[in-house]
Every structure is written in C-alpha cells, then in structure tokens.
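look at this record:
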Amino acid sequence: MATITSQILAAVAGLRDTVKINAQAAAVMLTSVLKEQRNNIKEKVPEIVDIIYFHLQATQEDSARQAAMGAVCLLAEKHTQEVVSALLRVSLPCDSHVSQLWEALGRAKKPVSLRVLAELLAMLKRRPCLETSETSGLSSSFEDASILPLATSRALCIIFSNKECLVPMGAFYVSVLIFLIIHLHYLLQKHMPVLLKPKKVSSPATPLWGDICCCTVEALKAVMKREKYSLMQSVSLAGAWDLLSMPETYLEGVLLLARAILKHHRSLDFAVFTKVAPLLHHGDDKQKLTAMALFTGLLSTESTYVTLKKQYILGHLKNWHVDPRPAVRWLALLGLGNVALHLQKERHKISCAAAKLLGDLLRALSGKHKSFMQEQVLNSMVPLLLNLQQQHPDVIKSCADTLQECKALLGWTLNDKSFFQAEWYPERLWSFLHQAQEYLRSPCASSRRAASIF
C-alpha cells in the first residue's frame, strides 16, 4: 500500500516539472498506476486528492493538468464518496483549480457523473451546523457537518453552469431544486460563523456569508436554466430571486418559484408533491416551512384535486390555520385562496371539489379563527353565486352548501340575499365586477348568462 501510494504521489509531483517531456511521462505513469491499483487505495483517496489539488496550482503544462483532472475522475469511478468529500473540503473558498476539478467530474463518463451528482444531493440534504462553540473552536466533525453541505451548492453551481458538463438531470431535477431552496433557508436564518478560513488561504479571500447565499441562488438558476430556460426567465421577471435572498421575503420567493415550476413544467406537480409530502410530516422546522410554501403553491394546479384526497388537503389547511406561527397561518390563507381560484374552473369536477373543500374548511374552523377568513370568503362569493347556475347538480349542491357556510361566517341571516353584497361592501364593487367579467368569456352559456345578470 505504502509503495503504491508513494508511486502515485511521486507521479503527481512530477506533473509540475517544467520540462514538458518529464511532465508528460509523469502523467502517463499516474494514469497507468491508478488504472491498475485504484481498487486497493480507498483509505488513501482523500490524501491523493489533496495532493493533486496542491500540485495542480503549480502545474503549467496543459497535458499535465488534464492528466491530473483525469486522475480525479479515475478515482471517482471506484471511490465517488471519498473524492466528492475531499473536494468539498477545499471548495470554500473555491479557486479556479477546484472549479476545474468539479467541471472535469461533470464531464466524466455518465455513470461517474451521475454518482457524483447523487453524492452531492445526499450532502445537500444534510442540515448544515452553522454554530460553533465559543470555547472549543472548530473540530473535524464540525467541519464535516458544516463546511461540506455549504460547499455543495458551490460545486453544483460550477457543474451546471459549465455548458460542457452534460450530467443528465432526470429524476434528480426536482430533488436538487427543492433541497437547494431548503439549503438557502438554512443560510438566511443564521449569521456567518468564523469558519470558512482555509489553512492555505489568507483572510481577504475568505468568502462572506452573503457570498454563500448568492452561490446557492446561482446554483438554482444554473439548474433551472440547464433544464428549462423559459422557467429561469419567468422566475427572474417575477423578482423571485430578490425575494428568495432575504429572510423577510423568502417564503414569498418560494411561492413564486413553485408557481413558475408548475407553469413551465406541467408534468412536475406530482413529482414535486411526492418530494414535499414527507417533509410536511418528518422534516425539521426549516424543511417543513419550505415544504408548506411549495404545497401551497401546488394548490393552484388543477391536477392537485385529481391527485390528492380532499381530506389530505383539508387536514393540512385546518392545522395551519390554528398554528401559533404567523407565517404558517399566512400560508393557510394563501392555500385557501388557491382553493377558491378553482371555483371558476370550467371542469365541473374541479370546481365541485374546490367548493366542497372550502365548505369543509369553514365548518372545521373554530370561532376565534373565523375572522381571519373573511377576506377569502368575500373573494369566493361571486364564483359560488354564479356556479349556482351551472347544469351539473353536484356543482350546484356543493356551491349552495358552501355558500351557506360563507353566509354564516360573515354573520348574515338566512333571509339575507347574497346579491346585496355589493351594497354591503361598496369598497369591493370593482373586485366583484372583475370576477363576474371573467365569466362573460366562459364557454358555458349558463355561466355567461349568470354573469350578465350579476
């Protein structure tokens, strides 16, 4: 083992030789030894990667540099986890040499690049430990817990920003997006600890906390642009990046991002839900809150009411409405608003399901929480009224039942007529008229007629 390692380290050091033929000979020797012996050097892989990185900084000959990067790819074929972990440890701050090593892994053979992506995703799912003990300083376990997840977003950004990197996303796409978003949430909730100061780098090169947040946002952009450029443009135009980058507006950014994903990737709603649902039940606070925002955005799609059971949606919104955290109650209201949007859908099964869900939710609320719902209820009154004129008995019944729940919440008597709402709420007149105007373009004659009468 010692002899093999010595041969490899000697070959790596030889890459720095200023005589071109000597550097080329060292490159051939390095490749040959690794191909023959890489199965037997697992414990030495981190040391070898560190040495390759160290010597790469002084290697000028292009073919020698390519040999060094090829050596890392050869090691990754058999020891992916060890190579990824070793590179992550030198990726904050990330110089051009580390970037080239990540790019090389992104250009590697498909099985290798996929395993690298899987390792990075597994690391991204780990919660970074962003606090240090004032007395103990930094330990190796702290570095593993903190620096490696933080460096992962940097590595992903490098890999997906390089046009030559052809790592196929496939099933990884949704997971990478969701966990990058959650990773950003962790970063925004903490202050920068004094930890990102590598032994070989002077303090002016030490990255700031904001740099790491920006890098995570850039990684999100790179992943989106790689998979669907129109999605990245849509999110940029909506201003979601600025919202995502600030703790006060992070959840608003997640909602915009969720809507954009579902708009430009119509087939992804079920995939997003399958990744989000477990986090609603078993995630930590940051994961749950991000998952709630994504789930709320999911309620704006029609397929949600085909895919998800009504009681599942109802259960979450009920629980969120009584949560002590204002942000969670706010998401519950937005979720209800997304449910109410489907009252106007032409597909009668969708509008019927939305009306039933709204009615069930109103019935389930306790008195002290009903005051929060008045705005959403008033937004739902016109669609409920106009849907009473539909030709589908199940839609008419569900809307009529829900309308009675709305009246009860607003404090109306049974004899009060709903068409007096414009008189009682004059400040909402234009909102009511705008909602009715939408129905004038309905392909359903009864809906157009009801809107005209209104």
Observations:
- Residues 132-142, 191-207 have pLDDT under 50 and may be disordered.
- The two ends are 86 Å apart (CA to CA).
